[in-house]
Model the fold of this input.
Amino acid sequence: MKIMKHSIFKQTIVVFVTAILLASITAGAISLVYDARRIGLQSARYARGGASVAAQVIESVDFDKLQSSDTSELYTKTRDVLRSICRSLELEYLYLYVPNQDGQNVRFIMTAASDDEKDKTVAIERGLNVVVPRILTEQEITALNGDELAKAYAENNSFGSVYSWSYPVRDGNGNVIALIGSDYRANAIYRQTIQETLLIIIPMIAVLLLVFLVELIAMRRKIFLPVKQISNRMKGFVTDSGANFEPMNIHSGDEMQEIADSFEKMSDDIREYLSSIEKLTAERVQKNVELEVAGRIQSGIVPLKTMLADEHYEIYANAQAAKTVGGDFYDCFKRQDGSVCVVIGDVSGKGIAAAMFMAMAKTMLKDYLNSGLNPAEAMNTVNDALCSSNPEGMFATVFAAVLDTDSGVLRYANAGHTRPVIFGKNAEFLEVDSGIALGLFEDAGIIDCSVILENNSGILIYTDGITEAVNMKKEFFGEERLLSAVKEASGAEQAVRSLGDAARSFVDGAEQFDDYTVLALYYSGNSKQMLKLKPELSSLSGIQKEALKHAGKSANGNKIMLVCEEVFVNIVSHSGASCAGVSFENRNGSLIVEFSDDGVKFNPLSQESQGKEFDELDSGGMGIGLIKQLADKAEYRHENNMNILTIEFIL
Done:
């Protein structure tokens, strides 16, 4: 039998006393800091007030005459006034001085102290024309410039520890000719602070001790004595196996009585012990069933496979969780404006917690993207919402994109996710801004970027469970195998299935350690025949060829080519775009030309070219004039952060 070495009653006393001491120390420290700051501010006001009043006194007398002699009646009366100000405001010193031009020493004119002994000393050591080496403080430099620094300056010198304030003295023309310094005793501040703190701490300690004593007496009667009685009865129960124990007569009506009643039922509980084990086993089975149900619910939120398509695009996705429930997610849907959204994400961790976080992030992203927000706007909004309610510190990497099926412009944003792959004629990684995962920091500053998908090309997005898949040799699947698997794909489903087959063949039966999800968006294009362009003059020849090809034998061919040339030159020279595109569409006897770029928002049709000099026209105005003169119709709009200029020519 173990001997009790520590009494709960004694430990409780130690804990209470320690708590009282800690509370008192904490309250004292807080009060000390608060009182010190308050008294310091009050002292600064006194010091400033004294300096201000003294400056007015000095400005009212003849300053040159004041400096002539320290035995003059004017000097004596002025110094007496300064002493009077010191005493009335409880200042330590007031002193009038002139800093030298080099800022390395000061020349004193007079000094006054509230204390008689100190006043005799400073009258000599800081009297008329006494020069003292001294580097000016920031406050003194500010005062020399005619301004004030809104804080007192703490200083330790041969005259003690003080808080100083400097105030400018001006002549009749408003020029600063000297400084008035006022010192407030730091010791007085410390003493007053300690006194006020003790007035708070001592009564608080007394009240806490009284409350503790009353509570201790109640706890001994209500808790410790019944606990001791229950403990003794338990020892007896162990000795005789509960065969002949008598009920305890504890009728306190509180938790102690509940403990005693529970103990009296212990014999019945022992007999039910085996049945309880069976119940626990059943509960474990139930938890497994609930986990499987959670997995099926997640499959409803994130299906294993999804396909979405029309004449312009095809989307195919596949997801596989490493455990019953996982943290990967994806989404794809069509918005009311006709554009198509795709989203993929990877939540930190696995299991039910990751699945719950995933469901919340996925739902919010879909809601905001469906409302018409751009990918970056939606992700920044969701990130702030997740950061405000994320007690477990979870996060998710996300890539989201919106495709304009008319123009092929893909607007995307990245929040710490793996870089996607552009596939079609070949396969290559799309260089994206790395971004910050959602849920880590507020104001993540995720940005929008864009790329124009050519006809019969697509984008493949995936989670790192693909590239980090490991085979029996502990080798990673890697990015090179990923590119090789999708480079010949000619559709979304084909790209996803090719990558899945390559990954399974590589793993060759090894255990899956991480969730993996793959989504492909394939753009088959439209009749506009959108050309993806680099905003460089080298792209101009391609535009000219397409313009002449679509103009056919029309007499407007040169006119169309000239307008297209001027529009594209303006984009290259002035927009700052990172990507641009142009489409040509023959419709009802007309040629519709549409330029798009992600540069600075600018409506060329709103600009006037009349009355401009030739040099101004040459820098952009001439192109604007050509559009208005030569085009039969022109319209500008700004959608999804893209400048879109549509020009119509009647053939």
